[in-house]
Design goal:
Number of strands: 12
Distance between the termini: 44 Å
Number of domains: 2
Largest sheet: 7 strands, mixed
Shape: globular
InterPro entries: Extensin-like_C
Organism: Sphingomonas alpina
Structural class: alpha+beta
Protein name: Extensin family protein
Low-confidence stretches: none
Mean pLDDT: 89
Radius of gyration: 19 Å
Strand content: 15-25%
Length: 242
């Protein structure tokens, strides 16, 4: 019993020490977004716990909508879907205008609210800066292969559901620049020039915002898209980036 008490006490001390370290670290850098307990603000630079906070919005649809509103994201609500184990009650569809610069094609597809929030931050902090860096212009359209799909994890007849089954995932196929230039995962991922570098850059940036980011480097099933999802895995969640 004494041993258990000592272990528990050591755990409490370690947790307090970690909290103090994080607070000092964030204060010295002037970055409150690097703390796990500070409120999420979609307009702030990406912090150490931004991805975790985005995934946690799965449990709070009103808060997620409020964050989209605060950030000036234009969207419409989608009717809830209840299909047994599949479905969602927090679906939104991007609408024209607002603070985002890129449209989505097809435009009719919606996602869960946390995915919409993460996509917005991804565009502002990763996609558009990378497009300007490599091509001197912005991304006008982001092409995708869909979000909601009632199915298991790819390639499994049984087992856990895919994050697509709750619209908590989206598959990005490519990008269209202002001048009409197309950049696709299937055609340009292996490119050693600006197109390939851009695609790998936006993949790497997505890894900080999404719980799971899978690219052609993961397996053949992802040869034509980036899989982005917001699977919730706890406060100090592990992330998958391949």
């Amino acid at each position: 019993m004494n041993s258990l008490r000592r272990i528990a006490a050591a755990g409490v001390v370690a947790a307090i020490a970690l909290a103090i370290f994080l607070a000092l670290f964030a204060a010295l850098r002037g970055r409150p977004q690097d703390l796990p307990w500070t409120p999420l603000d979609l307009g702030q630079p990406v912090g150490m716990f931004t991805g975790t906070k985005l995934a946690a919005l799965t449990r709070d649809f009103p808060k997620c909508r409020a964050l989209l509103d605060q950030a000036g994201v234009s969207y419409t609500l989608m009717p809830p879907v209840n299909a047994g184990r599949c479905g969602y009650a927090d679906g939104v569809r991007f609408a024209p205008g607002g603070s985002r610069l890129a449209s989505y094609a097809p435009a009719t597809t919606g996602t869960s609210c946390p995915i919409a929030a993460a996509l917005s931050v991804w565009e502002w902090t990763v996609v558009q800066p990378a497009a300007r860096r490599y091509f001197g212009q912005r991304v006008a359209s982001i092409d995708h292969l869909g979000s909601y799909n009632c199915r298991n994890i790819y390639g499994r007849a049984t087992g856990p559901l895919s994050e697509h089954a709750t619209a908590d995932a989206i598959d990005i196929a490519g990008f269209t620049l202002e001048d009409g230039t197309k950049i696709t995962i299937i055609g340009d991922w292996a490119d050693n020039g600006d197109k390939g570098t851009f695609l790998r850059s936006v993949r790497n940036g997505a890894c900080r915002l999404f719980s799971t980011t899978l690219s052609p480097e993961y397996n053949a099933a992802h040869h034509d898209h980036l899989h982005l999802d917001e699977a919730e895995r706890g406060t100090l969640s592990w992330r998958t980036c391949r």
